[in-house]
Amino acid sequence: MRHYIFDEFTLGVTIGLISLLAGCATTSASSADLAKLKEGERVVCPGCDLVNADLREYDLVDADLRGANLLYANLHGVDLSGANLTDVDLEGSDLGETILTGATLTGANLNNSSLMKAVLINVVLTDVNLTGIWMPKADLTGAILDGTDLTDTDMTGAILDDDALEKAKLCNTTLPNGWQNERDCYYPPEIDRQDY
Question: pTM for the full model?
Answer without folding.
Answer: 0.77
